Amino acid sequence: MRALSFNAPDDVTLVETPTPEPGPGEALVRIEASAICGSELHARPGENPGHEAAGVVEQAPAGSGFAVGERVGISAVTGCGSCSWCRSGVQLYCTVDRRMHTAMHADRVAVPASALRRVPEGTPARDAVLISGDALGVPVRALRRAPSHAGERVLVLGAGPVGLGHVLVRAHAGAEVVVVEPSAYRRELALRLGATTALEPGEATGAAPALAIECTGIPACIQQALALVEPGGTVLQSGICRSVEVSPTATFVAREVTYTGAWYYADEDYPEIVRLYEQGLPAERLITHDFGAEEISAAYRAFVSKDSGKVVLDWTA
Ligand SMILES: [Zn+2]
Ligand SMILES: [Zn+2]
User: Fold this and answer.
1) Fewer CB in a 10 Å sphere around the end CB: N or C, the chain?
2) For position 126, what pLDDT does the model report?
3) Interval between CA 132 and ligand 1 midpoint (Å)
4) Measured between alpha carbons, how far is 217 from 181 in angstroms, rounded to an integer?
């Protein structure tokens, strides 16, 4: 089968590899679509960092509840399934056997059956990738951890694929979304996804937001978010960031700001993701580029250029 061989973001190819053999408790999925995630740009040579994919079940373990031929999305994170965190739907916190699954830029992948996500009847594969992976998973977990209400001001710092997902989900929830992003292409895209204002870094952001979602990981931006949010407001850190110097007295005591974070999404978040999708959340607007699997190096080029949102590969081509 075909699979990605990653050397560097500007040096990727498809290679022939053996089809994976599903182990005990694992399912084999024929991939129909996969999406590129920003974290892949830091992959090591020789890896296949793909972890957002959807396809058709070819083999499923007995008792999994999934049928051969069924279209599914795939979660990149599974837990042991039996500890108290896993049983309460937060496999992200599992310390017994938390595993992250990759190798999904390929014709087939073997993953634990607990990674499979049932998608609504008739969901296209490229939408299934979005609802079962980072694209909607990250912003919906963030929404559940730091809710925003209709009419509330939300500031999103950084409108890469993650920030754009936050824009889409918060705008759908009725928030007034202000975006700060250096790329003109992505500012334009943020407006199409429902942001009311899209600014360049350094421009005045207007009235203090109740919530700031920090997606750049840059220390100066984190400090800016903590300073700009209204007293009693919340800053949600989305994704990894560097260390930053903060005055707890000035920020958390005097201004009573809450600083929290969210990573990926948990089993418990999935019903809400599906509910929003079925309610008409226009997830597909996050996708700006579609490529056939054979065009994988052009796909990475489009992703790295930053003149893109989600970039999706079609493995049926
Ligand atoms: Zn990711
Ligand atoms: Zn567990």
Assistant:
1) C
2) 97
3) 11
4) 13
CATH of domain 137-262: 3.40.50.720
Q: What one-letter code names the amino acid at 152?
A: E
Confidence band, pLDDT 50/70/90 cuts, at residue 166: very high
Question: 128 and 71 in contact (C-beta within 8 Å)?
Answer: yes
Tell me the CA–centroid distance for residue 307 and ligand 2, in Å: 39
Partners of residue 78 on adjacent β-strands: 99
- What is the CA(182)–ligand 2 centre distance, in A? 40
C-alpha 95/C-alpha 121 separation (Å) is 34
The predicted pLDDT at position 239 comes to 82
Tell how far the Cα of 55 is from the centroid of ligand 2, in angstroms.
26
The alpha carbon of 252 is separated from its chain's Cα centroid by a whole number of angstroms, namely 28
Q: Who surrounds ion ligand 1 at CB < 5 A?
A: 37, 39, 134
72: β partners: 55, 118
Helix ranges, the chain (H): 84-87, 125-132, 134-145, 161-172, 184-192, 219-228, 248, 270-278, 296-304
Decide if the complex's ipTM is over 0.85: yes
Q: Where do the domains of the chain lie?
A: 2-133+265-314, 137-262
Calculate how far, in angstroms, residue 37's C-alpha sits from the geometric centre of ligand 1.
5
- The rounded distance, in Å, linking the Cα atoms of 171 and 192 is 11
Q: pLDDT per residue over 94-139, tens digit each? A: 999 999 999 999 999 999 999 999 999 999 999 999 999 999 999 9
Q: Which CATH architecture has domain 2-133+265-314?
A: Alpha-Beta Complex (3.90)
Nearest ligand, CA 112: 2
Helix axes 161-172 and 184-192, enclosed angle (nearest 10): 20
Ligand 2 centroid distance, CA of 312 (Å): 31
